[in-house]
Design brief:
By secondary structure, the protein is an alpha/beta fold. The chain folds into two domains: about 200 residues, Glutaredoxin; about 130 residues, no CATH class. About 55% of the residues lie in helices and about 15% in strands. The chain has 17 helices and eight strands. The chain has an eight-stranded mixed beta sheet with strand order 2-1-3-4-6-5-7-8. Helix 2 links the parallel strand 1 and strand 2. It is elongated. About 40% of the residues are buried.
Length: about 325
Amino acid sequence: MTPEDADKIGQWQEQLEGDARITLRSTDDEQTGELLTFCEALSRMAPQVVMGQEEADPGDLPAIEIGDGAVTYHAIPAGTKLSPFLQAVSAFGGGARGSEKDHLLASREDVVHRLKGLDVPAYLRLFVAPNCPFCPVVTEQALTLAAANSLVHLAVIDGTFFPELAESENVRSAPTLLLDGHFRWTGRLNLGEVLEALTQRDPAELSADVLEGMLKAGNGSQLIEMMLEREVIFPSLVDLLAHEKIFVRVGAMMVMEEIAHRRRDIAAQVTDPLWDRLSEVNDPVKGDIIHVLGEIGDENLLPPMREIIDGDYDLEVKEAAREAIMKITDRVHT
């Protein structure tokens, strides 16, 4: 941290009116140590910053989470990244300078108005880089969106700090803003275009990452109601039901079980797509897929389920098939 950064933090600290909360989401990645060093330095320079530390969810990147997680930083917020970060801590940190959100939204009645009716969560990912001249401005614009509606979540990612992620997303310049895996803006941001994308999205086209984010945030019931209201299972949910990570599958399975309980006809939409995935996944995933299919209860699956029992499958997969057959036959005869 440079002397200029330290001076900026000192001036910012003097304006705080209460405690601000940040949480280090730690992993085994080497970046965790650098993030911890920054957080500890920030807490020393600004004693009103209360730092917690928790393990990140499996598969997640280490991050600095601000407040209740509306904004996360997968970056060391130094240099050009520092001012927007401090602004985010003031606005979302849970007690620090409560008017900071109002400051972000000042003269942005258009943003507040257009996002007022947003009912579909949005997960924005903003890739930034050190010494990027446009990144602070675009970061503040993205913070404005998060301030205008609690359904908008923002992750700020330093593509040089996590180069593998930037490469996997084909991010080659900064700033680059991504929304739901379908929308991308590079360079100076046209906020009107982002607002249009946010408010006109078809929920059925939400990516698996967005659905996973909803489940991790405890919004499974909202996802259920969205699908029941539209009488369609979002295709990306099939990706989560066949996900290699068990904690992802479990959340998706709970959603499907509730939908099957309330509207079996809607739940049946995943029968063919899930069955098609069976040959592509490992045995634990096979067992979970078969469990879901048993909950849905399509009697047309009885013959292929019996073939699994008689076939060359793992014992746990066969047991899942037996249980599924029992559930399906019980439903048929009741």
